[in-house]
Amino acid sequence: MNTELEAELKQLIVEALMLDDVGPEGIDVEAPLFGEGLGLDSIDALELAISIERRFGLKIQPSEEAGPKIFASVRVLAQYVDSHRPPQ
Question: Domain 3-84: which topology?
């Protein structure tokens, strides 16, 4: 578990999606990002994927099957980013 990366992703979510009513500290790393959790939609997923690609230098190509898994929660997203980003 990479809590530093999780914190960075929470901050990125708030900034990239301009969430005025939610701060990084208000995002539960285990909560769903879509639907009942944070309530994001498909446009948010696209914007978030672009922001992650820019920040971490990796390409996210979420298919209909993989997309929901990659963006399931901040924790799952952090694991994906950590295992797919280029070495620094």
Answer: 1.10.1200
